[in-house]
Write a structure and sequence with these properties.
The chain is of the alpha+beta class. It has a domain of 125 residues: lpxc deacetylase, domain 1 (Ribosomal Protein S5, domain 2, 2-Layer Sandwich), CATH 3.30.230.20. Helices cover 24% and strands 32% of the residues. A five-stranded mixed sheet has the order 2-3-8-4-5, covered by helices on one side. Strands 11-12-19-13-14 form a five-stranded mixed sheet, with helices on one face. Helix 1 packs across helix 5 and helix 5 packs parallel to helix 6. The longest helix is centred in the last third of the chain and has 16 residues.
Length: 278
């Protein structure tokens, strides 16, 4: 397959999910081989951060960050999942603010405008990461494993001490169509008993009952689920976006048990050292 970019410039804006501040991003087509580049146009010198330059964080609380210091860009996982689904390899992202807009808390708010902008195929072949031997990272009772395979499929197990979530397992063979239908609409979530503490810590300042599922014992507060098992589907969405921090699609069978951004970050670093670093 060949690399792809978008056909037209688009602008997206809204409140940032964690910081609550205004955020605007302008997406521009990029030349083949350029990669996905974030440019902080609100900062002096408009510093640039490119995905494949290994400037990913250690997995900050409840979000994924690309870059370091003041030039970092936060909460990129939902956007990157949409880029993965549309097979976009090259893109310039001008952003005003330290964090991407929340949109609807899922990948749809990014996926749909990107599709409307049009996807342009380029002439250079895509670079992929094909896992050749089992890889595993773990912390306590949480683990993330990659097993050699000829396609990309995910088995994800979660276990929450809240009746409305509980123990769930979801398995899916992922491509553009299955992601858009089964995973992209799943919104981010937090537990009702955690919500006040998160706000007090400065997180979730841009969260609303429309873009964040606040899960109580009986279900979400003030809204209805898009899927009966929406939380576990969103965990898969986050994983897809986190893996695309490498700027290349991963081909493997993924088995995740209670995994999150921290373990995802460890796996990204392992894959970078073994399959990407030159």
């Amino acid at each position: 397959m060949n690399q792809k970019t978008i056909s037209n410039i688009i602008t997206l804006s809204g409140r940032a999910l964690q910081a609550g501040s205004a955020s605007e991003m302008v997406l521009r087509p990029a030349l083949e081989g350029a990669g996905i580049v974030f440019k902080r146009i609100d900062l002096c010198g408009a510093p640039r951060v490119r995905l494949r330059d290994a400037l990913f964080s250690d997995g900050e609380a409840r979000r994924t960050t690309i870059g370091a210091g003041p030039a970092a860009v936060q909460t990129v996982e939902h956007f990157l999942a949409a880029l993965w689904a549309l097979e976009i390899d090259n893109l310039e992202v001008d952003i005003k603010g330290q964090e991407l807009p929340a949109m609807d808390g899922s990948a749809l708010g990014f996926l749909e405008p990107l599709k409307e902008a049009g996807i342009a195929e380029q002439t250079e072949a895509r670079k992929v990461i094909k896992v050749t031997e089992p890889e595993r990272v773990e912390e306590g009772n949480s683990s993330l494993s990659l097993i050699p395979d000829d396609s990309f499929n995910v088995s994800y197990f979660i276990d929450y001490d809240v009746p409305s979530i509980g123990r769930k397992k979801f398995e899916i063979d992922l491509d553009h169509d299955s992601f858009e239908k089964e995973i992209a609409p799943a919104r981010t979530f937090c537990l009702k008993k955690e919500a006040e503490a998160l706000l007090a810590s400065g997180l979730g300042q841009g969260a609303t009952l429309e873009n964040t599922l606040v899960m109580g014992d009986d279900g979400p507060v003030g809204t209805t689920l898009r899927f009966p098992d929406e939380p576990v589907r969103h965990k898969i969405l986050d994983l897809v976006g986190d893996l695309y921090m490498l700027g290349r699609p991963v081909i493997a069978k993924v088995v995740a048990e209670r995994s999150g951004h921290s373990l995802n970050s460890q796996m990204i670093k392992l894959l970078y050292e073994k399959y990407v670093k030159e």
